[in-house]
Write a structure and sequence with these properties.
The complex is a heterotrimer of chains A (255), B (328) and C (847). Chain A is 28% helix and 31% strand. Chain A is built from six helices and 13 strands. Chain A has helices at 37-53, 68-76, 94-112, 132-139, 193-199, 241-251; strands spanning 2-7, 9-12, 32-35, 56-63, 81-86, 117-121, 144-154, 157-164, 167-174, 177-181, 204-206, 216-222, 232-236. Chain B starts with a strand and ends with a helix. Chain B has helices at 16-32, 49-54, 73-87, 98-111, 224-232, 241-245, 276-282, 298-302, 311-326, and strands at 2-6, 9-10, 13-14, 35-41, 59-64, 91-96, 115-122, 132-138, 143-149, 154-159, 175-180, 194-197, 209-213, 236-239, 266-270, 288-292, 305-308. Chain B contains nine helices and 17 strands. In chain B, strand 4 (35-41), helix 2 and strand 5 (59-64) form a beta-alpha-beta unit. With 847 residues, chain C is α+β, with helices and mostly antiparallel strands. Chain C folds into four domains: 7-195 and 219-329, D-Amino Acid Oxidase, subunit A, domain 2 (D-Amino Acid Oxidase, Chain A, domain 2); 426-497 and 589-704, 2-Layer Sandwich (Gyrase A, domain 2); 501-586 and 708-735, Alpha-Beta Plaits (2-Layer Sandwich), CATH 3.30.70.1400; 739-847, Beta Barrel (Elongation Factor Tu (Ef-tu), domain 3). Chain C has a nine-stranded mixed β-sheet, with helices on both faces. In chain C, strands 1, 2, 9, 10, 11, 12, 19 and 20 form an eight-stranded mixed β-sheet that branches. In chain C, strand 25 (529-535) and strand 26 (541-551) form a beta hairpin. In chain C, helix 2 (63-78) crosses helix 9 (357-370). Chain C starts with 6 loop residues before the first strand and ends with a helix. The chains are: A alpha/beta (255), B alpha/beta (328), C alpha+beta (847).
Chain lengths: 255, 328, 847
């Protein structure tokens, strides 16, 4: 089977995220970059599926030229092909992004046949838009379900499991289909050293990005007010046990 | 010109997030000096109209179609899109939940309109005629974005828990408007096909109680008292990177940057110094109790609660106290 | 939590391995009322200690480093924090096998058990190694992994428990207040503390903190890449933190160290990557920690290939954790320790790695307590060693860039720097360059080591100028040095000594002041000079220099290129604050030529004039009678005002001639012209610093003269001791009454033919002097006999070495062994004490 996974390059920040002085971006001066976590799981899921069913996993990203690094990371853990859709800024709005991605996928499919599955992350770690996959799927005229915490293939049908308060919901999508993957579906593997070295040799194809600007515009980023932590010391040594259990009772975790 | 609230429900049971949306939509409509209306999807949600009316909606639109018996993101999104086309609201507000984001995204895609998710504030000068300025959360809440939704109809979701639900009866009873939506095969697939009831047993990611051990635990065997405490609290055991590195526990138990990120009701961190890579995995916990010999340890200074002492003595004492109270 | 204090005896900034251990050691030495702060949390505040690989390979060619490392390992052992696993350095290239022989030699010096292994023997210890690509191994069974965080915690807590220390984490230093050049207070986000002493033990942040007080700690944060890969079956099965020896793949500058079920691969092969201390992210803004930055993968890729080549299993292991870890690099790869030269009582304990951390903490605690350390001489770690140009970022980056990839390199004892050359040139440089000088770097100065123009003399003195068959022995060396030596001894030579430092002290308090700092009586007549050691309070060598008395209240101290910074600091430290002494550093104002040899007097007689009582220009009488040894005269040389100082470090009649820099070239040309008829030649430092010196048995600060040794042991004690008090006097008086347990001796090689049948020439890098049966010689104070200087003695036809020996071995004629490149060569004690082998009565200098 052929699976395409859309991934996004995002910074890997610490507990405090610094913003550039113009308020337009996260200050990434000393940050590393990574594949957005949901998408990291999507890559892992795709790789597991082809390990089971055979086929190819193509990773695609719309992002700056440096996002090639994330494509290679995906290849180093088992993706087989990589496509970079370069843009000269870090972010396009969700409408424009979805349009560009759908166009590239459409062109690729026109040339090579349809992908059985197109996987997205449920939402990106940085912009948290929750919509690119949905929009792209609609343009590709195929079904999509988000929040997937399970994805198996059964006779040409993608079986998606998703968690809700009531339990697990099961969706069955006839392929070709799209799925929005959620972190926790698997534990993504780390690249091996050999995988990393091999990924350097894989050719990264490039496709042109086209799209019209949508209606959601960033004005500025800011940090929420910080909460001061005033640690309450419940006591010293074993004598603190009753105070601890009082707290557990108060929080309702011990009744 | 109206503000439309999209009610989230599961087979006729309203979710709590919807109440905040109803409240926010009403407040925004008041500010705009316009009408507040609501939308329920599927006939099994008709009975929610009364609750909706209690929040002051003047009209409850009830989208009907034979397919709409359970949740289906595409069918729901298409239903919203058709209602929106019909009534042309100024603003559409959905819930800031997995389903809420998904159906608003679906509707926005179908309407080819922008959508802004997880909004926590709306421009207080907004009157319906200009772009809508919002504050939305990004980076899982670590950053706020001031954004502008520039479209004739503004689709947004409301960040969960930011608006306290508040009932407010309308001056006159709500008008019920039934709208038959047209749904075709293209949206038929993505309905819930089956369900598995929630099974017993919890995972590290979902457990409301996590008892976690760090380097200070000292060995694989020394985790036994932590296991006992976790089991008394129906929780699970986690650990820091030092522990997995030492081979004391599996990586699946690791909380942190390279392990699992958790958000339990309480995180009990035993003998964990609280290195950043661990902290980022645990910081979403609603409460943190640190047990550490070092009052200056990072985790102690960041935790809400702390016990200063040797975990090998403190943890068994807590378990003993729990058993004592259980036996009472 | 206790309230933030308003004052303290000592504030230690930093809670890494150094700050923590320092707190413990100061507490042990009786310090109370101390406060330790760190801007990060505890026990891991986010500095380099937190991500260190924590292993100790004890072998080091440098004595100071070796002793500090061994002392540290001993402390880790005593705290139960030392996990011995053994370590193997493996060779891929034949040059490395040679280096292993050298390491065996250094191991012998420091008493470290070590063994050479065949590839098959390496494989036995490390079954997953690819033995086919290695040529052999250097195995040290005592290599260990330590828990530096826990060690630090225990040391810190020991001070807390003793009631001598309070600790404040998450406390950031905002400012350091200085008053009258002395540290006054530390301003933090939690409050201000007045402090008598402040120690900067902030690792990579040290320059930033020191700068708040106007002090300079020259280091740069630099990246060391490492990755944790695993899990790996064979490692997991050991069920231990570290069961297999650590492997250092020396020729790829890489190591593999087991950490439980994984392997940590670390690299010193990538390009040097620096970061400014101000740019290091905060704890909160860091994904991992401030000093664990994201791996720049492209830099690490080549290293991964080499690692897989050595251990194939690594290829399939997952990269679980990979960082650009920050550590501290200094321009000369040594730590930066001691009181800052800019601010009194502000101390630096920086650029220290885990392996030497606890030892250095002890050293600094002793230094702060006793005025100088006891553990060992911090000569090459002393913060005061740096010259101004060496403290610039320009210099730091250039030198660190150059030496970073030598971390696992094979560095020759005479190795020359390639960068930051031509920093300082003497006025004679154009003539030297024209004469084909090979320049060596002397702390920025370009100094001729030998001259190609003298190559013709090699055939003249053929018998004494044999070439060295082994490339290692011949590296950074030329037989021309021997030829220059012999030509000088036969006729006359001129030596560029501009790199000397000249410190002028003037004023009414100058005699008292200098008497206090110097051992020998400086109150000599005007126009006379004094040679004198400077002592530590414990009576060991702190300095070694000469002083001229130019006027009643005007003294000029002359000291060498390598100790100018240290000596300047030492004099400044004790200078009276009442204005009675004025200090002027003349080093950049004066240039110097040494003119020596049997024809030096004739040469200078031709060149030198002065103005007589009638105001007429007349030839100057340079005879010993008018101008005796050790005296100083103002003269004119071809119209150039110059100061002549009759002295010699090479054992010949002659002078050091000083003039102002701008007159330099004219002075050079005048002397050269005057000496032409005698065959005067330019002579390089190869003669001045080695061959000429060793024939005369002259001791050198930093080699023979160290704070561990006293003047009695060095043979430099005078018959009488002056009545004035001076630093170290009590200890010196005591040493004079005791029988020395070590005596400086000159040894000659009896046969330098190796087993391979070629002549070897030990470089003089701490090679051990052993008994005939190959046993180390250790004196009653635990000091080992080792070569402090080695070199040819062309006039004696010998190869000589200087070494301290115990009294039982310090017997002229006694036969011993020297180990060189892991081979024993027979040597004989040629001289006990300071009497020279060449011209024992100094007749040549004084007649």
């Amino acid at each position: 089977m052929n699976i395409l996974v859309c991934v996004k390059r995002v910074p890997a920040p610490g507990a405090r995220i610094n913003i550039t002085s113009d308020g337009q971006q996260v200050d990434t001066a000393f940050l590393g970059f990574t594949v957005s976590p949901h998408e990291e799981c999507a890559v892992e899921q795709a790789v597991q599926l082809i390990e089971k069913h055979g086929g190819d996993v193509t990773v695609l990203t719309l992002g700056p030229a440096e996002a090639e690094e994330q494509l290679r990371t995906a290849v180093s853990v088992g993706a087989t092909k990589a496509i970079l859709v370069p843009i000269d800024t870090t972010d396009w709005d969700p409408q424009k992004t979805a349009q560009a991605i759908a166009k590239v996928i459409g062109d690729l499919e026109a040339a090579n046949g349809k992908y059985d599955l197109v996987l997205f992350g449920n939402e990106s770690a940085d912009s948290c838009g929750y919509q690119v996959g949905v929009r792209a799927a609609l343009k590709l005229a195929r079904p999509i379900v988000n929040g997937a915490k399970g994805l198996e293939i059964d006779n040409g049908v993608a079986v998606v499991r998703r968690e809700s308060d009531a339990g697990v919901e099961i969706y069955k999508l006839k392929m070709p289909a799209c799925v929005g993957i959620k972190e926790g579906i698997n534990l993504p593997r780390y690249p091996t050293m050999k995988g990393r070295l091999a990924s350097k040799k894989v050719a990264v194809d490039r496709s042109e990005a086209t799209g019209e600007t949508g209606g959601l515009k960033l004005i500025t980023l800011r940090r929420p007010p910080e909460r001061a932590s005033n640690t309450i010391i419940l006591g010293n040594g074993p004598e603190a046990a009753p105070a601890v259990v009082d707290l557990l009772e108060e929080l309702g975790v011990f009744k | 010109m109206t503000v439309l609230a999209v009610v989230e429900h599961d087979r006729g049971t309203m979710t709590s997030a919807s109440l905040g949306v109803l409240t926010a939509a009403r407040n925004l409509a008041k500010q705009m000096n316009t009408k507040f209306e609501a939308l329920t999807i599927g006939a099994n949600a008709d009975r929610l109209s009364e609750t909706v009316a209690n929040f002051g909606a003047t009209t409850v639109h009830q989208a009907h179609n034979a397919m709409l018996t359970d949740f289906g993101p595409e069918a729901w999104g298409e239903s919203i899109a058709q209602v929106v086309r019909k009534i042309s609201p100024s603003v559409v507000i959905g819930t800031g939940t997995e389903r809420g984001h998904e159906i608003i995204a679906q509707a926005a895609a179908r309407l080819d309109l922008p959508a802004s998710m997880n909004c926590s504030e709306f421009d207080t000068d907004f009157n319906g005629s200009q772009p809508l300025k919002v504050v939305r959360t990004r980076w899982g809440g670590s950053l706020l974005e001031e954004a502008q939704v520039d479209a004739p109809i503004k689709l947004v979701t409301l960040a969960n828990h930011v608006v306290e639900p508040q009932e407010e009866l309308a001056t006159s009873p709500a008008t019920i408007s039934t709208i038959e939506v047209q749904l075709d095969e293209s949206v038929a697939q993505s309905f819930v096909q089956d369900r598995v009831e929630r099974v017993a047993g919890v995972t590290l990611a979902t457990s409301p109680v996590v008892v976690s051990g760090g380097r200070g635990v000292g060995s694989a065997e020394a985790f036994a008292p932590l296991e006992e405490l976790a089991s008394l609290l129906n929780g699970v055991v986690g650990c820091s990177r030092a522990v997995t590195n030492n081979g004391w526990r599996n990586h699946t138990d690791q909380v942190g940057q390279t392990g699992t990120r958790i958000a339990p009701d309480i995180y009990i961190a035993c003998g964990i110094s609280g290195a950043i890579q661990h902290w980022v995995g645990a910081m979403a916990s609603k409460n943190i109790l640190a047990i550490n010999t070092d009052a200056q340890a990072n985790i102690v200074t960041k935790a809400g609660y702390a016990v200063i002492g040797d975990l090998h003595k403190v943890v068994p004492a807590i378990s003993a106290e729990i058993r004592r109270r259980q036996n009472k | 939590m206790s309230e933030f204090p308003k004052s303290a005896k000592c504030v230690i900034i930093g809670a890494g391995i150094v700050g923590n251990c320092l707190a413990g050691h100061l507490s042990k030495l009786g310090w109370t009322n101390m406060v330790q702060i760190d801007k990060g949390p505890l026990p891991n505040p986010g500095g380099s200690t937190g991500h260190a690989s924590n292993f100790i390979f004890p072998t080091d060619h440098n004595k100071e480093m070796a002793l500090l490392t061994l002392a540290s390992q001993q402390q880790y052992i005593e705290l139960g924090m030392n996990n011995t696993c053994g370590g193997i350095e493996v060779a891929r290239n034949p040059e490395r096998l040679e280096e292993f022989n050298r390491r065996m030699t250094s191991a012998k010096s420091w008493g470290i058990d070590a063994k050479l292994l065949s590839p098959a023997e390496v494989k036995e210890l490390v079954p997953f190694i690819n033995e086919e690509i290695i040529l052999g191994g250097y195995y040290t069974p005592s290599v260990s992994v330590v828990d530096s965080l826990q060690t630090g915690t225990l040391m810190r807590e020991s001070a807390v428990k003793a009631g001598n220390l309070s600790v404040f984490a998450n406390t950031e230093v905002l400012d350091l207040e200085v008053e009258n050049g002395t540290i006054k207070a530390v301003v933090t986000n939690k409050g201000r503390i007045e402090a008598e002493y402040v120690v900067v033990a902030c690792g990579v942040w040290s320059p930033r903190i020191a700068k708040m007080a106007g002090a300079n700690i020259p280091l740069t944060p630099a990246v060391h890449q490492m990755a944790d890969v695993g899990p790996i079956d064979i490692l997991q099965k050991t069920n231990a933190e570290v069961a297999y020896p650590i492997v250092r793949d020396m020729d790829t500058f890489c190591y593999e160290r087991q950490t439980a079920g994984s392997m940590e691969v670390g690299s010193y092969a990538h390009r040097a990557i620096f970061m400014h201390p101000d740019d290091i992210p905060s704890n909160e803004a860091s994904a991992l920690s401030p000093t664990e930055l994201p791996l720049t993968q492209d830099d690490f890729d080549p290293q991964m290939e080499q690692a897989i080549e050595l251990m194939e299993m690594l290829g399939d292991a997952e990269i679980k954790y990979a960082i650009n870890g920050l550590l501290s690099l200094t321009p000369d790869a040594m730590p930066v320790l001691g009181e800052t030269v800019e601010v009194k009582n502000l101390w630096s304990a920086a650029a220290v790695w885990i392996k030497e951390g606890p030892g250095i903490a002890q050293l600094i605690a002793e230094w702060m307590t006793y005025g100088y350390p006891h553990l060992c001489d911090p000569h090459s770690s002393d913060i005061s060693r740096f010259y101004p140009h060496e403290k610039t970022e320009h210099h730091i980056y250039a030198r660190c860039d150059e030496h970073f990839n030598k971390t696992y390199g094979i560095v020759h004892p005479r190795e020359q720097w390639a960068t930051q050359r031509d920093m300082r040139r003497s006025p004679f440089y154009p003539r030297e360059e024209a004469a084909g000088a090979t320049f060596f770097d002397a702390r920025g100065w370009e100094r001729p080591q030998w001259f190609a123009s003298n190559e013709k003399l090699v055939s003249k003195f053929k018998a004494a100028c044999e070439s060295r068959p082994h490339e290692w022995d011949a590296r950074w060396w030329s037989p021309i040095t021997n030829a220059e030596h012999l030509q000088m001894r036969e006729s006359v030579g001129m030596v560029d000594l501009t790199a000397f430092n000249e410190f002028d002290f003037t004023g009414p308090g100058v005699v008292n002041f200098l008497q206090y700092v110097c051992v020998n009586n400086v109150d000599v007549p005007v126009g006379r000079s004094v040679y004198t050691p400077l002592l530590t309070p414990g009576g060991g060598f702190r300095g070694d220099l000469t002083i001229m008395r130019l006027a009643d209240q005007h003294f000029r101290v002359i000291t060498g290129a390598f100790d100018g910074g240290r000596d300047k600091y030492w004099f400044s430290k004790f200078m009276p604050q009442d204005g009675s002494v004025t200090f002027t550093d003349m080093s950049s104002a004066l240039c110097t030529i040494g003119v020596w040899g049997p024809n030096a007097e004739k040469t200078m007689a031709k060149a030198t004039q002065n103005i007589n009582a009638e105001g007429k220009l007349v030839p100057f009488d340079v005879s010993q009678k008018n101008f005796p040894y050790g005296s100083v005269r103002e003269v004119l040389i071809d119209g150039v005002p110059a100061t002549m100082f009759r002295i010699s470090y090479v054992g010949e009649n002659g002078w050091e001639v000083y003039t102002k820099m701008e007159h330099g070239l004219r002075l050079w040309d005048s002397i050269a012209k005057a000496g032409e008829e005698f065959g005067i030649i330019p002579v390089g430092m190869g003669v001045y610093a080695v061959t000429g010196r060793i024939e005369k048995g002259y001791r050198l600060m930093g080699a023979e003269l160290e704070s561990e040794y006293n003047p009695v042991e060095a043979g430099l004690n005078r018959p009488k001791v002056k009545s004035a008090d001076f630093i170290g006097k009590a200890a010196y008086m005591k040493a004079r009454e005791e029988k020395p347990c070590a005596i400086m001796c000159t040894l000659e090689m009896i046969d330098n033919t190796s087993k391979a049948g070629i002549k070897r020439y030990p470089t003089g890098g701490n090679e051990p002097i052993l008994t005939k049966s190959g046993e180390r010689i250790v004196d009653a104070k635990g000091r080992v006999s080792r070569v402090t200087t080695a070199g040819a003695a062309p006039s004696l036809g010998k190869y000589l070495m200087l070494a301290y020996l115990t009294p039982e071995h310090a017997v002229e004629g006694n036969e011993l062994r020297v180990m060189y490149m892991n081979e024993l060569f027979p040597v004989r004690v040629a001289r006990v004490g300071s009497q020279p082998l060449f011209d024992p009565t100094d007749a040549r200098m004084k007649s």
